[in-house]
């Protein structure tokens, strides 16, 4: 890597904010410089130096990081053990000193009032579920903070954030399949939250503010600004979601008007709302697309992508009145780029491209293939390899998978992966059901009582790679983490002969026990994903049929690398530990079986960059050894 590297600067008000990383330091330094006429100033200010704050801590992570509207204060939250419970601090950016305000026991997410005098934050319960929103007045003790909202349903998580316009504080509550939103005008932070629309089981929605250009000083009789609207992303009468608009204060969904109507097979995942445009991030045929809609007349433009396999996402865009959209682009053979799309001209310019010393993209090939699942469904696979790699079945291959929570595993760039590709590896991603790569129905076909599709899809992808001579079973490795670790455990039981080596990192492998203990973090909220074995015998028996821990048998298994985190609040360390212990007691082979436990970190692994590299190097070294 480069000795010093800056991120692409992002304009927010009169400043441009960016990060600087150093090759010999584990964390980044946050900086800013004045913005003016599109030319950055040479005068820099340090906003926050993570390396200075991390001294004396084995683990260190900045969670929330929010600049106040007047740019004089920074609210930032620290986690020093990986448990994902934070302490909030307020820094005076004019003196570079923290105020006396310190608020313990926070979860992710903070939001500023418009006058920069109040801040809203979430608190978790004993199961690490964010369930409360509090308001803190700057300069007062945290014991005087006011409880604004509390969600009693244990299956719902609470979040708080600002509208991009800065005019509203938004409080979101959501389970796996249901959500609602409340709002508080940012210029009256003491106001009680108001509901956008009533909660309905199975209906999800989120909102952002569309400010009417001519209504800043006009109010309706109910106190809401005239002509202002919500932009609403919802699955109401839309399996793959739609974007609608509604007057603020109008809570009746039948009066919502479509801005981006539902298109079956095109899953709208996100929206970015600006003064004159709404940008829709949507997934079609397994790839992400960006569509720009002009609010005034509904005119649409799609941003074109240069590669057949890629990942694209909108970036930090804090300016509501921005004339450009910042987005990121990468592919397995294209290092990450930050780009600006001009709303009026439709032109795109590269702001920054990550430099990878010695890398030549022309030496590599990226492909999209399709494997047939057991039921005939076509499963997309992203594949990358070096041009000199033989495709005669002799090359080692690493197949990655996840397949849960409608999360998409993107075909992105990885500098660490180059170490494998340059050694002759083929690298593949199985975009299996349970993820969101092919729309909401793709997710539905891989959850609850259809979860086994996730595992058999992955095995079908492995068999395809062998049948097409990318590799062979004796040179095929598989990798997954968290719910992807469950995938690894399940396929190792269902098809141990299909893989030579498996890495399962922070793996969810004792499903029945965890889902039967509502006192554990996340359990109640996870029942909509996995089923409830306490109340449903069908859920219990089905879960038992694939639970990795419960299906270990006395036969040969692939070599295994298993990683755990002692402070992990999502997958308790004892799950992988007891799974490995059962393997040691029952398996009939002498293949490598490693349990590596990080004693000072959580679900995401080590926090510092160098420590994270060492962890990644250990996994890659395992595969190089096991598949040689």
UniProtKB/TrEMBL annotation:
Residues 7-353 form the Peptidase S9A N-terminal domain. InterPro entries: AB_hydrolase_fold, Pept_S9A_N, Peptidase_S9_cat, Peptidase_S9A, Serine_Peptidase_S9A. Keywords: Hydrolase, Protease, Serine protease. Pfam families: Peptidase_S9 (PF00326), Peptidase_S9_N (PF02897). GO terms for biological process: proteolysis. GO terms for molecular function: serine-type endopeptidase activity. SUPFAM superfamilies: alpha/beta-Hydrolases, Peptidase/esterase 'gauge' domain. Residues 411-627 form the Peptidase S9 prolyl oligopeptidase catalytic domain. PANTHER family: PROLYL ENDOPEPTIDASE-LIKE, PROTEASE FAMILY S9A OLIGOPEPTIDASE. Belongs to the peptidase S9A family. This is Unannotated protein. It comes from freshwater metagenome.
